[in-house]
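Lecture 7 notes: from sequence to structure.
We start with the chain below.
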Amino acid sequence: MKLTRMLPASCLLLSLMIPQALLAQKPTGSESPSYYNIGGVLSNNESESHFGTVIAHLNFDQQYVPRGTTYYDKTIRIDKNPIKTALNVCKHLISRRVYAVVVSHEPTGDLSPAAVSYTSGFYQIPVIGISSREAAFSDKNIHVSFLRTVPPYYHQADVWLEILSHFGYTKVIIIHSSDTDGRAVLGRFQTTSQTNYDDIDVRATVESIVEFEPKLDSFSSYLMEMKTAQSRVYLLYASQEDAYVIFRDAAIHNMTEYGHIWIVTEQALSANNTPTGIIGLKLNNAENETDHIKDAIYILASAIKEMTVNETITEAPKDCDDSGAIWESGKRLFGYLKTRNIRGETGQVAFDDNGDRMYAEYDVINVHENHSFEKVGSFHYDSEKRKMRLKINDSSITWPGNTGKKPEGIMIPTHLKVLTIEEKPFVYARKLLDDEIDCADDEVVCPHFNITNGNEQEYCCKGYCIDLLKALAQRINFTYDLALSPDGQFGHYQLKNHTTGIGTTVKKEWNGLIGELVAERADLIVAPLTINPERAEFIEFSKPFKYQGITILEKKPSRSSTLVSFLQPFSNTLWILVMVSVHVVALVLYLLDRFSPFGRFKLSSNDGTEEDALNLSSAIWFAWGVLLNSGIGEGTPRSFSARVLGMVWAGFAMIIVASYTANLAAFLVLERPKTKLTGINDARLRNTMENLTCATVKGSSVDMYFRRQVELSNMYRTMEANNYDTAEQAIQDVKDGKLMAFIWDSSRLEYEASKDCELVTAGELFGRSGYGVGLQKASPWTDAVTLAILDFHESGFMESLDKEWIFHGNVQQCEQFEKTPNTLGLKNMAGVFILVGAGIVGGIGLIIIEVVYKKHQIKKQKKMEIARHAADKWRGTIEKRKTLRASLAMQRQYNVGLNSVSKSVSSQNAEKTRYPMLPPLPRTPERAWPKDKEYIVNRKNNSAGKPPPRYMPTYATDVSHLIV
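Predicted structure tokens for the same chain:
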């Protein structure tokens, strides 16, 4: 033990006894140097003395210094004047070939370490800072070879995030000065939050950023703006002087009382008026230069040892006059230094790519009553897990207001701005008419602010989601202002490049409802908003108020009805064959009955007349009558052979009529066809054909679903060109037949199908999800809204909304419509009526022809009557003349007879000879003249034995030649 205590003094004595000539010795050949001068720019004598002691001890530590290698110290005092510091570095350090420089921080100046870094960095000589914490030293474009064993101030943002995660605060307000370090704190906080905290639910987001100019006089105006924010967690980066002003004004505005949380950095914690309950940080070993000197020297020795094993180290620059000499070994040595990771006096020492200290340990300080500082936790390195770990004793914390109860960290507003979007049946939007003052009782005012032209129009909204909003407001006690989506979109993102201080990053920018919520211009979204991973990354969702999926809407395929629909049961060929068969059978029946010897027979044994054989027109009438099942009153076959054929034809007609009736029922009274598509896996959708078009809504959740499904990529590429701006346009095109398949949320499509029975949803649901209420990240209303929705499900309130707004009672009606077979309508049977009409028109046409023909016949008969009348008159005249001559002749004969009897007898004989008995004339009654009746009577009398009349008129048997 005594030897150990004496070792530093003996080592120091040994180093002083080394001859000066040895210091000027140069290595020979290509080997690395056997000695290394280490420069130190320190702030006081104690540090200089300790610097030499540590190097003396280092020479005896074989773990870091191999045999044949020796380290020497070269120190100078840091000067307030950075120019003098730079000159001293050149004169007393670089001229002695130092391989690295350890620099401290002058208590009253900030530029001296920078002067050392600039000077040494010009020659690529590594510089290790042990107290410089400004953000500027992280810029490797300026400080090319600077690294430090203390972390920069902005690294405290890492501890802030751990503290916020521990307490569950997810929304904060950052207050920082507008200098380099203040902006670096903000950048570090945002970058680390997005990089290291994958779970969006626990990630801290910045609600507001307050940037102020240093050297404040008043901070009240900033505090008034902060009061309107929702967050009550304040992260403060400020100097001691500025922090004093901020705390002073915050106390005046009661923003240091219960409900407000202040988490500050080291500088702000040192203000004289830090309020009770503030939580701050304090770096371990921040002012312990001796420990940092030792860690810096041992890190340097470790890097040189590893470098000598891998490569040769060349000599360091010898003066500042050789401006063209760049020490390449120094550049590589700096790379070795950044890879160090050792356990030192100040904890685990490692460096990031900027050369900044990693794994720095902090104490978590809480300001108690009477301005006492108490350690309530620590941020330390866990050697087992090899990462930093935060440990806080919550029970020992005093919060603002001198209470032990942890504040919520947010102010819960009771008046919310709610957004929705028109989407039937969830939201019906009706434009308020000019003569209307207010909306109806079941409606809510929902103005629409058009972001394109800046106009605002008043609308009235009602529907499923509006009733849900009313119930939520009543259940969890808040008021609201409702508005429609500014751009009429649900919201989709676009990837855009954003340039920051650390480089270019790609971010998602949202529009529509989601964009309004992400930008915190709205508090709530009550709409049919589908829950999906892309949206859940940026906003909160309640539990689903309606579970649904994605389905396909199409128009039911209907059989086309034409004027000849009644002919559909038979093909055209069969109808032609039936028509031909009717006339062929009629012709054969006529021939059989015509040539059969038994085709004619007497009606009775006493009647001598015979029935005529079946003529052709009667045969055709008989064939059609049998086929059409009509009674045949006349014109039936009489021969046995014809009757056999008639029976066969009757059987044929029975089969044809029965088949027609059955097929008519099958064709026109079938069960209604359902769908054309079988679902999303239908091959016609996967390999879209030209005559099959499908689409969805641009930027919707369905569009996002197809975009991320690899197996649907081919289908999505085809759909993308057909997508619509709104669902209403697509549904209307489905009804009009312009779009065959519309892919959308099942709730909306089921509503459309229940409203219009001609529409139907195809296949099973896919991409199942739910509609949820959208809220801001870390919104205080999330749990309340979720619990209310779960209660609505249990009480049956959501089911009542489904029945009232989605189904409207039409589902049963459509189901009944599906089960009921089709009835034949005018569309189907119009051809039959047209056929009857054609028969009527044909009959009327035939009767007209018959009337015209009959008139012609009557005219001809009249001419015949005139001719006959003229002949009768002429015949009468002739008869009168004959009668007169006969009378005169008889009178003369009578006069002669009186004179002589003999002459009378002879006269009588002569008269018999002159007027003999005439045979009966072969005249028909139709051809008889009117006066022929007397002749017929005379004939009968003559046949009875009576003599003919004494005087017989003479008639002309044929007078047709007299007709003109």
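Points to note: Residues 122 and 353 are 19 Å apart (CA to CA). Residues 1-29, 921-937, 940-946, 949-964 have pLDDT under 50 and may be disordered.
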